[in-house]
Amino acid sequence: MVMSSQLEQRLLEIYQRLLSRYGPQNWWPADEPFEVVVGAILTQATSWKNVEKAIFNLKKADALRPAALRELELEELYQLIYPCGFYKVKALKLKAFANHLAGYGDDLDRLFSQDLGELRQELLSIYGIGEETADSILLYAANKPVFVIDAYTRRIVSRLGLLPQASSYSALQSFFMENLPRNTSLYNEYHALLVRHGKETCRRAPLCQGCCLKNLCSSPRPGL
DNA sequence: GCCCAGGGGGCTC
DNA sequence: GAGCCCCATGGG
């Protein structure tokens, strides 16, 4: 059986190699917390390049504010976020969050100031916010020590033989959070590095041969 | 043409 | 609770 401290060492080794390879990623790429929230919703199943275009449009229209998002006609919002795809559902999601925030006087700090567990549940209750989006908001907008799991993380963890590809979100999240110190900065940089690494490496590449995580695989499965 | 991108909701079984 | 399908633009 692998002791927890050994898992921690392995996870920290992965982190150090990614950090050495790519350097600090300085996430989240946004000017302020509300922009993080908007970006987290818009980037669902969408490349960040397309999200940048939508955010640029929102800023130009002075619409990157909760009140503005509420007041905009749906058709206008469609046009602003059109480049990032799924624009009809995403427009509803942005309005849903803006409507929810109105209950806090449009003050994100007030929303974020409550108990972490309750806050996460509240975020999940909002239309369009699932586990990854909620955790991205908690980590990158509210600076809470919450590890974000995404498709890249799942793929990399699977390739390294740490957990099965089919593991649930909560299983993956627990794996990281129970084997790493509760540190917001560490979680921030770690997830950003996993995404960076996921983008840099070929999806179909067998294992991690030739990449910076080479020979960290505990149970090699060629051709995975 | 194909595949996929920093997911989530709704529906079925 | 798992397995589908739908949402849609833009780049490789």
Would you mind describing this structure in some detail?
The chain is mainly alpha-helical. The protein has two domains: 4-26 and 148-200; 33-141, Orthogonal Bundle (Endonuclease III, domain 1). It is built from twelve helices and no strands. The protein has helices at residues 4-22, 33-42, 48-60, 66-71, 74-81, 87-102, 108-112, 116-124, 131-141, 151-159, 169-178, 184-200. α1 (4-22) crosses α12, α2 packs antiparallel against α9 (131-141) and α10 (151-159) packs across α12 (184-200). The chain is globular and about 55 Å long. The two termini are 24 Å apart. The model is unreliable at 220-224 (pLDDT under 50).
Low-confidence stretches: 220-224
What's the overall average pLDDT, rounded? 93
Tally of extended strands?
Answer: 0
Rg from C-alpha positions? Answer: 19 Å
SSE map:
Elements: H1 4-22, H2 33-42, H3 48-60, H4 66-71, H5 74-81, H6 87-102, H7 108-112, H8 116-124, H9 131-141, H10 151-159, H11 169-178, H12 184-200
Helix pairs in contact: 1-12, 2-3, 2-9, 5-6, 10-12
The protein binds a DNA duplex (13 and 12 nucleotides) through residues 39-41, 43-51, 53, 82-90, 93, 127-133, 136, 148, 150-153, 166, 168, 191-192, 194-195, 198-199, 203.
